[in-house]
């Protein structure tokens, strides 16, 4: 059980979104509406060790392109296909989870990170197995919304 | 030779960010996606610094670093480690690997430039071409002064040039400006509150991006102490108020190695023409003298054997004009160039008053000079 998980996630998301992309980040209770028919993307990085789990970052495809554009300092037209967006979103997840992992390791919960992976689609949901602890947080980033889902399995 | 930077990261995103961060610097950036590729590129390119990710597939950063350290040709290449994991244990692990520095993701572009700038000498792109720029090329000048009237005065003083003056009243605003746009030259008031001008100077010189930008101090003529302090701190120079704009333009031209020769020299119909402006100031004398030998040598190299000293615009001739004319004529004699002098009746008369120039033979126009050359 990580009691200040929300604070850890919030700090990591704010750090990454502000430093690398100059977004104004605000936590919100309002969820992302996945039923609009708009395509969405989830980037995931797992951590394995004394604490095992996975963190998903959710965003609409449009917002993912905007984040990629800001991260790389490119115009939208300069983004070359989905691969560039996938890589950028994977790196974002890596930075967010790296930030969280560092805090966990400092508390003696040693773990290693997995390589990022990407899921694209619409109307999808990720269900945890019953033994896992699941938390979902949302953040307003300027006009857009980012979702962060953390699934933990304590050894 | 340009410095070489190697970025080794499995994330194309990070490699793009690193490459983009150094886009405005005169350096080459090479990329590799893992430790194996990194070692191959390092052996081939012999980079001056390696920015190395820690967590990568195939061969991670720690293994690549240990292989680098045992390679006789690569062991001395400084390595800056890049990692998303900032925990104490990880930082200690990195330190033990023998890296020069480390950076935690997320990072700002300026930070990576700063860290690399500590290891290699980064110069802004185009600095070599700066030396070839002309006085009438567009320049971007930044003036930092808390008195709007001074900024307005400088803008107005450069009104006839193609230079653009940007004014900022506080040091923080100036730093923000420099992070977005690199000025060609900066003028900083030495009387900003809390020694702000000196603090700003130190910040500019500590940054890889702005360390090569010439910085002049602005000071009231009588403020000798702050002027001495500025010279000691390493300012390019001090401009005293009230500002003499001709002197300031000349100082800027020298600081940026701007070519001013076109204002005085031209090649016309196979003749080198040295044309003096209406008013002959010390700055004009310095600029013409600075270019004279090179321009005459260039003309000889181009096959020219005639020179005209055009004093037709000159309002009055004094000793300094005579001295410059004599230098030019001596140079022509040394290099076997024929020469003629163009000037008004009044200037011709003034020159006859001096022993050294009493025998100068004046003609009224360029056409007359050309005809005189033909007659021998």
Topology summary:
The complex is a heterodimer of chains A (155) and B (376).
Chain A: H1 5-21, E1 25-28, E2 40-49, E3 51-60, H2 61-72, H3 81-106, E4 111-113, E5 117-121, E6 133-141, E7 144-154
Antiparallel strand pairs in A: 1-6, 2-3, 2-4, 2-5, 3-7, 6-7
Chain B: E1 4-8, H1 12-21, E2 28-32, H2 35-45, E3 49-53, H3 61-70, E4 79-83, H4 88-96, E5 101-104, H5 109-119, H6 127-130, E6 140-144, H7 148-157, E7 164-168, H8 171-180, E8 185-189, H9 196-206, E9 215-220, H10 224-233, E10 237-241, H11 245-255, E11 265-268, E12 271-275, H12 282-301, E13 306-310, H13 319-334, E14 338-342, H14 345-352, E15 362-363, H15 366-375
Parallel strand pairs in B: 1-2, 1-3, 3-4, 4-5, 6-7, 6-8, 8-9, 9-10, 12-13, 13-14, 14-15
Antiparallel strand pairs in B: 11-12
Helix pairs in contact in B: 1-5, 2-3, 8-9, 12-13
Description:
- The complex is a heterodimer of chains A (155) and B (376).
- In chain A, 35% of the residues lie in helices and 34% in strands.
- Chain A has three helices and seven strands; from the N terminus they run αβββααββββ.
- Chain A has helices spanning 5-21, 61-72, 81-106, and strands spanning 25-28, 40-49, 51-60, 111-113, 117-121, 133-141, 144-154.
- In chain A, strands 1, 2, 3, 4, 5, 6 and 7 form a seven-stranded antiparallel beta sheet that branches.
- Chain A is globular, with a radius of gyration of 15 Å.
- Chain B is an alpha/beta fold and 376 residues long.
- In chain B, strands 2-1-3-4-5 form a five-stranded parallel beta sheet, with helices on both faces.
- In chain B, α13 (319-334) links the parallel β13 and β14.
- The model of chain B has no long low-confidence stretch (mean pLDDT 89).
- Classes of the chains: A alpha+beta (155), B alpha/beta (376).
- Chains A and B meet through α1, α2 and α3 of A and α1 and α4 of B.
């Amino acid at each position: 059980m990580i009691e200040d998980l929300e604070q850890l996630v919030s700090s990591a998301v704010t750090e990454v979104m502000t430093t690398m992309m100059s977004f104004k980040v605000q936590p919100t209770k309002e969820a992302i509406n996945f039923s609009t028919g708009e395509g969405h993307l989830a980037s995931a990085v797992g951590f394995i060790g004394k604490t095992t789990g996975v963190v998903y970052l959710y965003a609409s495809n449009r917002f993912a392109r905007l984040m990629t554009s800001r991260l790389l300092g490119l115009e939208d037209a300069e983004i070359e296909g989905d691969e560039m967006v996938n890589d950028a979103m994977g790196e974002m997840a890596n930075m967010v989870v790296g930030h969280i992992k560092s805090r966990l390791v400092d508390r003696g919960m040693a773990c290693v990170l997995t390589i990022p992976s990407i899921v694209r689609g619409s109307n999808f949901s990720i269900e945890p197995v019953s033994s896992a602890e699941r938390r979902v947080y949302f953040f307003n980033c300027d006009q857009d919304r980012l979702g962060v889902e953390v699934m933990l399995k304590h050894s | 030779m340009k410095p070489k930077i190697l970025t080794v990261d499995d994330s194309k995103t990070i490699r793009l960010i690193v490459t983009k961060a150094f886009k405005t610097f005169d350096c080459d950036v090479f990329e590799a996606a893992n430790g194996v590729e990194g070692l191959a590129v390092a052996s081939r390119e012999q980079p001056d610094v390696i920015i190395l990710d820690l967590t990568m597939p195939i061969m991670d950063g720690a293994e690549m670093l240990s292989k680098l350290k045992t390679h006789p040709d690569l062991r001395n290449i400084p390595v800056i480690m890049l990692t998303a994991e900032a925990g104490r244990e990880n930082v200690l692990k990195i330190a033990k690997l023998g890296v020069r520095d480390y950076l935690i993701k997320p990072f700002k572009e300026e930070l990576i430039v700063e860290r690399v700038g500590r290891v290699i000498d980064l110069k802004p792109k185009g600095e070599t071409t700066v030396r070839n720029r002309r006085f009438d090329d567009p320049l971007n000048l930044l003036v930092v002064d808390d008195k709007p009237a001074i900024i307005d005065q400088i803008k107005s003083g450069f009104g006839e040039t193609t230079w653009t003056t940007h004014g900022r009243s506080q040091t923080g605003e100036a730093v923000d400006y420099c992070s977005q746009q690199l000025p060609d030259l900066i003028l900083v008031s030495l009387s900003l509150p809390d020694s702000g001008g000196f603090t700003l100077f130190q910040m500019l010189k500590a940054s890889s991006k702005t360390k090569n930008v010439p910085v002049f101090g602005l000071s009231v003529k009588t403020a000798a102490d702050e002027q001495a302090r500025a010279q000691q701190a390493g300012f390019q120079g001090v401009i005293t108020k009230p500002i003499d704009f001709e002197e300031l333009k000349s100082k800027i031209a020298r600081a940026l190695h701007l070519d001013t020769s076109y204002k005085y020299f031209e090649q016309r119909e196979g003749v080198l023409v040295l044309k003096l402006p209406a008013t002959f100031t010390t700055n004009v004398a310095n600029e013409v003298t600075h270019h004279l030998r090179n321009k005459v040598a260039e003309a000889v190299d181009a096959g020219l054997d005639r020179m005209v000293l055009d004093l037709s615009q000159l309002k009055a001739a004094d000793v300094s004009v005579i001295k410059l004319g004599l230098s030019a004529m001596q140079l022509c004699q040394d290099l076997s160039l024929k020469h003629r002098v163009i000037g008004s009746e009044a200037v011709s008369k003034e020159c006859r008053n001096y022993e050294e120039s009493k025998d100068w033979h004046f003609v009224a126009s360029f056409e007359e000079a050309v005809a005189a050359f033909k007659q021998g």
